[in-house]
Specification:
By secondary structure, the chain is an alpha/beta fold. Helix content is 38%, strand content 21%. An 8-stranded mixed beta sheet has the order 1-10-7-8-5-2-3-4, sandwiched between helices. Helix 2 crosses helix 6, helix 3 runs parallel beside helix 4 and helix 9 runs parallel beside helix 10. The longest helix is centred in the C-terminal third of the chain and has 20 residues.
Length: 316
């Protein structure tokens, strides 16, 4: 590991308990405009978990304390009761397709996060995945804490243990097999991030609006790499929030995720083109193995400040 990264780990890695909640509320009260917070949950068919997450954030961070100003669930086309459950728990629910309607929406998590900037107003934007179980408000208060208390910090990732069933530390399979090798080999300054692909992170709007967004699974790696190049390592940090329990995907879904992440990295390394941006996987059928080919996410959305509607909204 680079000496620079070793120093960074001692200066920019914290625990959620390092900043007591009263310190965060004092920071909010001192400059409420600069420290306004929007929490965004991207959601697709998450009726089993989204309600508890929304209810916890609203109760702990909006009613008991005034740390979060708005809580928005962006529904990307759920066919279950995700939207109704989230709304009943206290979130504002916006459908992905109702945002920036002149640009047809593409499938993918990154697309939802990109569009969320148009329907939120906080100067700090905190993203939280909607499939978390046993959710703690520390996932939000911990990640926004450094942004509230230190104006030099611009991007904070949550870090945590990720169990796979009853096996501790085995949940981040794509992280360990794809993202961590890529970062260590090509962006060694980012080798200190424990959960580079984690879906829980908080970023200053002034930085987010300058970054391109891969529309699919590559969004977390893309934002992290581009943030490094835009503001430098010292503006990035991470906070330990404990344990993350969520729904695990099967091996083939992980393969598609890995391909999208590799594609995102490859674009940033060369800005070139893959010969064939597709991934073929195999499933056993009645007559043997059947090939299934999936497109690899290749689209990216431009920095939001280049979108006319966004510029007009913030000029108003």
């Amino acid at each position: 590991m680079l000496e620079e990264v070793e120093r960074w780990l001692t200066r920019r890695s914290w625990s959620s308990g390092d900043r007591p909640l009263n310190r965060l509320t004092d920071a909010r009260d001192a400059d409420p405009r600069r420290t306004s917070v929007s929490v965004v949950l991207p959601a697709l068919n998450e009726e089993a978990t989204v309600g508890a997450i929304v209810a916890t954030i609203r109760r702990e961070l909006m009613e008991k304390l005034r740390l979060v100003d708005e809580l928005v669930v962006i529904d990307s086309g759920s066919t279950d009761a995700t939207a109704a459950v989230a709304r009943a728990a206290g979130a504002r629910v916006v459908h992905r397709d109702a945002i920036l309607t002149r640009i047809p929406a593409l499938p993918g998590k990154g697309e939802v996060l990109w569009r969320s900037l148009l329907v939120t107003s906080g100067e700090i934007v905190c993203f939280v995945d909607a499939d978390l179980k046993d959710f703690s408000a520390d996932f939000v208060s911990g990640t926004i804490g450094p942004l509230l208390t230190d104006p030099t910090v611009q991007f904070v990732k949550a870090m945590y243990d990720r169990p796979l069933g009853d096996r501790a530390g085995q949940g981040g399979r794509v992280t360990e097999l794809v993202a961590r090798p890529l970062l260590n080999l090509h962006w060694p300054q980012l080798a200190g991030f424990v959960q580079p692909l984690g879906g829980e992170y908080a970023v200053r709007r002034s930085l987010l609006e300058r970054l391109p967004f891969p529309v699919g699974y590559g969004v977390e790696l893309g934002l992290l790499v581009d943030a490094l190049h835009t503001v430098g390592l010292d503006a990035l940090g991470q906070v330990d929030v404990g344990v993350r329990i969520h729904r695990h995907q099967d091996g083939q879904a992980l393969g598609r995720m890995a391909a999208a992440i590799y594609r995102t990295a490859q674009l940033r390394l060369s800005r070139g083109h893959l010969v064939r941006p597709a991934l073929t996987q195999f499933e056993r059928g009645e007559d043997g193995f059947v090939p299934r080919t999936h497109a690899v996410d290749t689209e990216e959305r431009p920095p939001m400040r280049e979108i006319a509607e966004y510029a007009e909204r913030h000029a108003a």
